[in-house]
Amino acid sequence: MDVILLERIAKLGQMGETVKVRDGFARNYLLPQGKALRANDANKKRFETERATLEARNLERKSEAQKVADVLGGKSFVVVRAAGETGQLYGSVAARDIIDALAAAGFNIGRNQVDLNNPIKTIGLHDVTLHLHSEVEITIQLNVARSADEAERQLKGETLTSADAIYGVDEDALRPEDFFDPDADGDSDEE
Predict the structure, then answer these.
(1) In 3D, which of 125, 124, 121, 100 has the Cα closest to residue 110?
(2) Burial class (CB in 10 A: 0-12, 13-18, 19+), 135
(3) What is the pLDDT of residue 7?
(4) Is 143 helix (H, G, I), strand (E, B) or coil?
């Protein structure tokens, strides 16, 4: 299906371009969301008459998104979750949790603006990309920890999932011989 784009869409095209897309993508996403029009003569004329208002509206949305990006860019947000000693979370941190952390800090971001392909399942510092506008994207840092104190230690650069941090043992000093006896299988060299 040929459609006329009403805004810039990543990996597809710029505003005003006529592009060919799959029918399902057009019917289920582009057309209902108001991101495109079917490419027929009537809609082409309609787009040309409304082009100035569409460009002005797009520019206004972009400037608002850029203001939010300037404030949000490079910030770090803490999410506290229960985790095992190895740093594996008992649950996971999904886009919904990121939105809640941002809302607690006073930022209103939509769930579809969070680019998180897989949920976060370990403690540590994670970079998350936010698409505030089709032309404005930023990266924030998500600090997933078991407690606020642990989050501060992670920011200082401490590793909290290694044997040293958990057990107070130097990982480099650990050797396999320290944990098992090669003669423990019952075979003895003595007869």
Answers:
(1) 100
(2) middle
(3) 85
(4) strand
Task: Enumerate residue ranges in the chain where pLDDT < 70.
Answer: 160-191
Tokens standing for residue 127: 């970079």
Q: What is the largest CA-CA distance in the chain?
A: 100
Q: Delimit the domains of the chain by residue range.
A: 2-64, 73-171
Q: What is the pTM of this model?
A: 0.68
Strand runs labelled E in the chain? 2-5, 18-20, 36-38, 76-80, 88-93, 114-115, 120-122, 124-133, 136-145
Domain formed by 2-64, architecture: 3-Layer(aba) Sandwich (3.40)
For residue 122, what are the β-bridge partners?
Answer: 88
Closest CA to 122 of 147, 155, 87: 87
Structure tokens at 96: 């919904």
Model pLDDT, residue 29: 92
* Pairwise CA distance, residues 129 & 119, whole Å: 13
Q: Which tens digits make up the pLDDT trace of 27-78? A: 999 999 989 999 999 999 998 888 889 889 888 988 998 998 898 887 889 9
Question: CATH class for domain 73-171?
Answer: alpha beta
